[in-house]
Amino acid sequence: MQYIGEAWLTALLADLHEQNAEFRNWWLRYDIQGIHRERKEQDYPVVGQLILQSTSF
């Protein structure tokens, strides 16, 4: 994740954990630390080759 370790994000997460039980429960269920990248290549008769790169975190 691009902002992991930045002070403003750490402070925001601390506030959410402290003040919101729903957020605490939600946060425990999701591993959002990893970055997932996927590349797809496809040849199309009309437009030619498309290369798609997706990134999510």
Total helices: the number is 2
* Main sheet characteristics: 2 strands, antiparallel
- In N-to-C order, the SSE pattern is HHEE
Low-confidence stretches: none
- Separation, N- and C-terminal Cα atoms: 6 Å
Q: How much is the radius of gyration in Å?
A: 18 Å
| Order of adjacent strands in the largest pleated sheet | 1-2
Strands, total number: 2
Helix content: 25-40%
Query: Beta-sheet strand percentage?
Result: 25-35%
State mean pLDDT (0 to 100 scale). 82
Judging from the principal axes of the Cα atoms, what is the shape?
elongated
Secondary-structure-derived class: alpha+beta
Task: Outline the structure in words.
This protein is α+β, with helices and mostly antiparallel strands and 57 residues long. 39% of the residues lie in helices and 32% in strands. It has helices at 7-19, 21-29; strands spanning 36-44, 48-56. A two-stranded antiparallel sheet has the order 1-2. The termini are close together.
Give a quick rundown of the structure.
The chain is α+β, with helices and mostly antiparallel strands and 57 residues long. It has helices at residues 7-19, 21-29, and strands at residues 36-44, 48-56.
Task: State the main characteristics.
alpha+beta; 39% helix; 32% strand; elongated
Please give the structural blueprint.
Elements: H1 7-19, H2 21-29, E1 36-44, E2 48-56
Antiparallel strand pairs: 1-2
